[in-house]
Amino acid sequence: MLCDVYPLKNRSCNDMDTIRAQAEQVHEMQDYIDAQYGGPGRGWFRIVSSPAEVRKVAGEGKLAVTIGIETSEPFGCGLRDGVPQCTEADIDRGLDEVYAMGVRQMIVTHKFDNAFGGVRFDGGIQGVAVNVGNFLGTGKFWEAEPCTGPEHDNELLSVGDGPAEALAALPPGVTTPVYPSGPLCNTRGLTPLGEHMVRGMIDRGMIVDIDHMGVKTAEDTLRILEAEKYSGVVSSHSWTDPLNYERIYALGGFVAAYASSLQDDPKKEDFISTWRKARDMRSDGYYFGFGYGADTNGFGPQARPRANAANNPLHYPYTTFDGGTVMDRQRTGERVFDLNVDGVAQYGLIPDWIEDMRNVAGADGDQIVEDMSRGAEAYLQMWERVAK
Predict the structure, then answer these.
(1) Which InterPro entries match (predicted)?
(2) Taking CA atoms, which of 10, 72, 127, 334 is between 20 and 30 Å from 205?
């Protein structure tokens, strides 16, 4: 939808064309890195498509990279005036195509309602803009109702309360919805095509990412996974109701929280408080580790500097949690980055952010770093239970 409304285009706006281009480009990136290290297979960046490949690459001290998909209309499965724009055959062909690309994890719904189900709303001003996009893409605004259980989607602003810049994209004369206050849920759940999609992923041993599913869609999906006793389920970046974590862990799935700021106020939601909740919900039946989803895409804000960093800073240099590397401030050319001043300005600051958790988590500092260090193994064991 962003492509459709943006005036300058250099490629198709079809989601599948973008997926194909990105799959090609990530392999070009691997080839480029290989060239810097002496030729094919020599680089540290290795694209993998099976747990066995992960263990081989990790054993060589290299980075195992998996390919996932997060988009609103995979396989052409959009929705227009309530009518799905794809068939079961389209889904089967699409899953076969992306599996052949090496894709092993997928988000089923993203920003806009699609043929598979309803989305978890974006909140605030951003939510108004995305809701306008939902109307332009599907012919309808999000439809919301009071939730029947404790889980809920993000709080909605009425579309008419949004910025004029977002409303200007609407055709003249469109009546915009007014939403009540309080916990709301998307009225749409998992559709028959959505069930076909989830079962197709199970049949191929793929990992179902329930992030961005509305409460009803996530509930329907989790019921299928529970009936199948299927471990291949994740929440990758805090886009599901946290009450679903216990069900994910009971299946042997994996949770990664959005890599947000490390708040000074323990009453506010942040990465550490999310970890604490997840840890309380973990299953004793499976190896536990915790992950982070940076969601670095130009829209997702990265962790800002802590407000009290001047009084309680991350001290440089520091030794990494495994005791193997001494880290000082990251340098790029003449630019020196300091987490206390810059926050997570780029990927090179993520090790600093993880080390800073020891400061902020207090007595839990060693535990959270240990759980983070176990995250890759926990994800891998989950994948090994379902891979085909």
Answers:
(1) Metal_Hydrolase (IPR032466)
(2) 72
d(CA 172, CA 192): 34
Instruction: Please tell me the distance from the alpha carbon of residue 55 to that of residue 60, in angstroms, as a whole number.
Output: 9
Which residue type sits at 342?
Answer: D
One-letter identity of residue 146: P
pLDDT at 166: 86
Residue-wise over 1-15: b if at least 16 C-beta within 10 A, else e?
A: beeeeeeeeeeeeeb
Residues 39-96 pLDDT 10s: 999 999 999 999 999 999 999 999 999 999 999 999 999 999 999 999 999 999 999 9
Beta bridge partners of 106: 69, 208
Alpha-carbon distance of 152 to 131, in angstroms, equals 17
Listing DSSP states for 16-54 in one string gives HHHHHHHHHHHHHHHHHHHHHTTSTT-SSEEE--SHHHH
3-state helix, strand, coil in the chain (%, to 5): 40, 15, 45
63: closest CA among 9, 99, 26, 101? 26
